[in-house]
Design a protein that fits this description.
By secondary structure, the chain is an alpha/beta fold. Helices cover 34% and strands 22% of the residues. The strands form 2 sheets. The protein has a 6-stranded mixed sheet, with helices on both faces. The N and C termini lie far apart (47 Å). Monomer.
Amino acid sequence: MVGVSSSAADFRAGFACFVGRPNVGKSTLMNALVGTKVAITSSKPQTTRRAIRGIVHRPDAQLVIVDTPGLHRPRTLLGERLDSLVLSTLTEVDVIGFCVPANEPVGKGDRFIAEKLAAVRKTPVVAVVTKCDLATREQIAAQLLAVSQLAEFAEIVPVSAASGEQLDVVADVLIDRLPESPPLYEGGQLTDEPEQVLVGELIREAALEGVRDELPHSIAVVVDEMLPREGRDDLLDIYAHMFVERPSQKAIVIGHKGTRLKEVGSRARKQIEALLGSRVYLDLRISVAKDWQRDPKQLRRLGFYD
């Protein structure tokens, strides 16, 4: 019989996910824990559309974070797909982090999610009070009390992803609830999302910045091709396509004489170069796919499956 060292036996590895209403800082928190930009973050609500795994590596543990879109009452077929993605994710993880911001009062959306979580009986739920850098000590104390009255939580932890305060505590609390297991991913790996998906998300994030409130839900991005420039090993050619639902939205994204689309391309290119560690040529186009959020065929074509 082969002996196992105590350090190997004590190693923990497993899956956690953050849930919460839109724009409560879930993706920002995951990026801060992982230490690099994995999930799209924007000031617009509902910017995360896929369950992206960010991987936190520690000497004693490996925490795989599944990022989910904000739970909400769906208004479109896309909204229904997103919410079913969240609910299916909840049943597959080892621990759930329920995010509530410190600087906003607990509301109907938070209570709606707390009710959903109550039905997931086998998985421990840790309440994470986010954005503490935007709240006073008195506000944080009041929010911790308000959150404690929503449901029975395994623990309640305040955190600021922006300043890094209490990040290690959040990681410890989540890791304590993982099973003993060898590592699930290789040491240097930070996500298991294909690079093309991450590139598409970065383009979408750049397109969301500075546009009207009705636009976020209407932008989808498909990366058609990513390949090294022939004869050069220091340049990557990326061909990507943005889709909106109406010609008026296309005009907003393009801007006056194409100025806004150029800004989007420039901002996305810098983020992509940082992600891939290579110079990038980005060919970015935009088309109208009428009412794609409500059309099952278009949703499938754009990567949102049943």
